[in-house]
Amino acid sequence: MNKTSKDSLEKPLPTPDGDSQVFWDGLKKGELLLQHCDDCGHVQYYQQRICRQCQSVNLQHKAASGRGTIHSFSVVYRAPGPAFKEDVPYAVLLIDLEEGPRMISSLVGKDFNALDFDIPVKLKTIRVADEICLPCFELTIS
Ligand SMILES: [Zn+2]
Q1: Is residue 105 assigned to a domain?
Q2: Which of 31, 40, 73, 119 could form a disulfide with 63 if both were Cys (CB 3.0 to 4.6 A apart)?
Q3: Ion ligand 1: residues, Cβ under 5 Å
Q4: What distance in Å separates the CA atoms of residue 69 and residue 137, rounded to the nearest whole number?
């Protein structure tokens, strides 16, 4: 097997850097860290050096409640590459976090018939490598 075909069978993983290491460390503890601006109160996901609202550098990380609602969703039936072939079908979610930011994530499980707009979800971190946990969401209704 040559390098290219082996690589295509491995899922891409995030590569934490100086700006995002704290975020990935939070997920390993089961926390989704959001940046809160001390100057204007804006809350943002994902990590940046400055507030996207007022350009302040006075940002603090705080753990999100983990609660949100589904703004939109899509069920993926065709794998985007060989590495995802065993995962299909799976659902991609657009989540409105309780704190305000909107984020893309994925559904834990395959209860696609229960998916709907504006229904509650909660955070569940999934370990995908030694140093990487991903923020996913599960339905809170059954
Ligand atoms: Zn701000």
Answers
A1: yes
A2: 31
A3: 37, 39-40, 42, 51, 53-54, 56
A4: 10
The whole-angstrom separation of Cα 26 and Cα 7 is 28
Full residue range of the structural domain in which residue 89 is found = 16-139
Cα 39 to ligand 1 centre (Å): 5
Distance CA 32, CA 42 (A): 16
* Mean pLDDT within 65-84: 96
pLDDT band at 141 (very low <50, low <70, confident <90, very high): confident
Report the residue count for the chain. Answer: 142
- For residue 3, being part of any structural domain is answered with no
| CA 31 – ligand 1 centroid, Å | 22
User: Number of folded domains in the chain?
Assistant: 1
Q: How far, in Å, from the CA of 40 to the mean position of ligand 1?
A: 4
Q: For residue 43, how far is its CA from the centre of ligand 1 (angstroms)? A: 8
- Please give the mean pLDDT across all residues of the chain: 93
- Would residue 6 count as lying in a domain? no
Task: Give the pLDDT score at 7.
Answer: 65
Whether residue 1 is contained in a domain is answered as no
